[in-house]
Fold these 3 entries.
Entry 1:
Amino acid sequence: MSYSGTVVVGGGVIGLSIAVRLAADRSVTLLDPAPARGASWVAGGMLAPVTESWPGEEDLLELGCASLARWPEFAADLGVELRTDGTAVAALDAADAAQLDILADHLATLGRAVDRLTGRELRKREPAVGPSVRSGLMVPGDLAVDNRELLRGLVSAAARAGVTFDRRCAQVVEPGSVRLAGGEVIRCGTTVIAAGAWSGGLHPALDQLVRPVKGEILRLRARPGVLPLTHTVRALVESRPVYLVPRKGDELVLGATQYEAGFDTEVTAGGVHRLLDDAERVVPGIAEYGLTETAAGLRAGSRDNLPLVGPLEPGVLVAAGHHRNGLLLAPITAAAVRAMIAGEDPPAEVLAADPARHVPTRR
Ligand SMILES: Cc1cc2nc3c(=O)[nH]c(=O)nc-3n(C[C@H](O)[C@H](O)[C@H](O)COP(=O)(O)OP(=O)(O)OC[C@H]3O[C@@H](n4cnc5c(N)ncnc54)[C@H](O)[C@@H]3O)c2cc1C
């Protein structure tokens, strides 16, 4: 069997975004036994490069900010709404407050000053935050998206653009072909490996570069009478990160744990307990919410937290390893892959994500 154009392996937010971009000027097949699921279905939906940043990860901050700038147009093209209220960041104990100071100092040195607030000042801006919060920050530029609405928008856009969905599972990607589980070989032009945490098994160069990082997350429903959140709230609770992302309507997403647990996607009682306990210390009203869903997903971890976006060998590209930021980085990743395949320069911020920083590649 053969496909004349490009085959994208993996139909999470990254593969779908790439397929939609590529389909504007070439024929595209998307290979995935379960498209629009994976980590992308589970995720929190924060588009938050600034509150994710940390000293030493300046390239990731630049990449994230460049992608954030593309989000309003990306969302409008897909007919997907964005939340623009920004993020309230909260610290519980003295060590948590010290961590927020490090983040605020770091951002100031990069010229990205944020508002430092006392606990009382933070509560004025976000009344759902409780009295145990010691200090905080307000980050106005962050956005948030309903990841499931986004995936529905991408699947519709891909179908409209003529992308062929092939629900088979890839096993190995080689120049000019993809071997399927079961042994059949598909001949094709270019292949893009975009299979998230599973990408490491699809090409020998990715074997040690992409690993699964488990994350548990909860979905809650505001019951009548509870005080709704007006911003995304991120917090450190005795050094453990927790976040709450309000959705349109009454949904609230509460995440997320982070473990190195291989391909395990079972939700544990301990994970749910920890998330609810930490969230309640930040937003006491959370105990009155209904619990509607628990889920676990696999982030695609990389060695340096930057994704891998670029050629591996002639006719084979990778777009994986987006770790905690795959939704945020989808627009710039798709633009970069389109440019690389068209022989154009990708956005400059993507050069830091070249897989050649870790493994020899052939162009
Ligand atoms: C709990 C949690 C919360 C998160 N919150 C956020 C957030 O707030 N903001 C943010 O930006 N990011 C967040 N992330 C990270 C984000 O979800 C990921 O970075 C992003 O979804 C990665 O997208 P992807 O398309 O690379 O992978 P995935 O969404 O995992 O998709 C991979 C796809 O590849 C397919 N596939 C696998 N193997 C094969 C194969 N052999 N052949 C064909 N297809 C295959 C799978 O079926 C799947 O559809 C979160 C992740 C988790 C787990």
Note: The chain has a mean pLDDT of 96.
Entry 2:
Amino acid sequence: MGEAKGRILIVDDEPSIRELVKLKLTDDGYECDLAEDAERALSMLAQTAYDGILSDVNMPGISGIEMLRRIRLTDEDVAVVIMTGAPDLASAVEAMKLGAHDHLSKPLNLDMLTLTVDRAVEKKRLIVQNREYQRNLESMVHERTKQLNDANGNLRSLFIGSIKALAQALEAKDEYTQGHSARVAEESVRIARYLSLSEPEIRSIWIAGFLHDIGKIGVKESVLNKPGKLDAMEWESVKEHPVLAARILDPIDELRDVIKMVKHHHERFDGGGYPDGLSGSAIPLGARILAVADAYDALTSKRPYREPMTPEQAIQIFKDGSGTQFDPVIVEAFLNSTQQREAGEPVPYPVFESTLMHDAKQPHLQRE
Ligand SMILES: [Fe+2]
Ligand SMILES: [Fe+2]
């Protein structure tokens, strides 16, 4: 004999009906248990899992309807079929409202009996299966979302790590620019925040600050570290660095905006800069910001051939160069945010690079 079609609890105070139903359902492949009243049925339900319950309504003690109400408090799935006499139609309706799957009229039609129980048990099975499926689906979606978030987090830190590594690669080669990239990034973010730029713009500017001189990787070390004035040829090779940077970063689609900023950070507001001689608002805003932050750090850093300027001397250069070398709006933002810098106020960094925030600060501290 194959596996049973399900386990059924038959509840009726009439022994002959219990036995008749059991005989028929057992014949048709069910395992059956018997209870003579609702109380007994409830205690059996507490012990054993049933696929279906076939119950009389009018029984001494607890009625079939009340039993169903109690069952539904703890088990919303078990298939319930009630058996009513003809005058009991109101009970049948009530039972259906309480979640009975079907009802049978007495006297029982035995073929209908099996058919009805089959249907009820199958319906219950589908409901449970569907709920399982939904639950699995939810946990699958949860799991996938978590995996994606983790992957995004990994990608983000990989991305930030790569930017940092690139900047460090340059600084390893150009000994006089130790920490320059991080300081330019910091100063640019300070200005960008003062100008209330959006968070994505600030992120791009921060990255551009780190990468603005990356093209110097392609300039000879002997030129970068030359302790005196550069000759014309050498100067031309240094001036290549913004275009070289754009070429290095070109394969990274996510850096479209950053590349424009990097490429044009040596343009002058009056059009006299390089590489393209752009002027005014034709120069990307981020590049105009970088130009000021870059110049400030260069002027106040020690070079082999000169001592660093004091901040006051540097500020005078910006006042003089406002509207010619530099965008006056950016100079003003820079000068106004200078107080924050002097007060040692930390710059609120773009959200995604919290790991780097700390490192970005270090060169600043080591500078003196
Ligand atoms: Fe540069
Ligand atoms: Fe620079």
Note: Residues 212-213, 241, 265-266, 294 surround fe (ii) ion (ligand 1) (CB under 6 Å).
Entry 3:
Amino acid sequence: MAKKFICNGMLGKLSRLLRIVGIDSAYSNEGMAILLLARKEDRIIVTRNTRLRGKKDVFFLDKTKPEQQLQTVVDAYNLWSEIKPFTRCIVCNEKLISVTREAVKGKVPYFTYKHFSKYAMCPQCERIYWKGSHYKNMMHEVQAVLGET
Ligand SMILES: [Zn+2]
């Protein structure tokens, strides 16, 4: 089964990067309550909080740059084969579902509708994704890391 993570505190950016590359990554800012949450959902805690260091199923990060943090986590848990960009909602961490062009008509800008034929939607927030400039910007963020695969 694919590994699942939960980032906390200062690692909001890392959590977003993990989602961009398709890895299940929740986020919590609730201090020590994260231990219960992680156990309940069977997630590995990724943190820079020294109070959590050394606890079971906690991965302590000493890197400060989000891109380096992403690479460290992917390396440590050997996630290279699980990287699937454009498969997960950046906002809610839900898996995206494919939707037809007809289904997004009127919900995306007309230019987008005209020029893109493939779309994906988040079942939770109904945000629509396509491989336009936003996608390119997202990929640019993780390019340094993905480039080394
Ligand atoms: Zn969403």
Note: Residues 89, 91-92, 94, 122, 124-125, 127 surround zinc ion (CB under 6 Å).
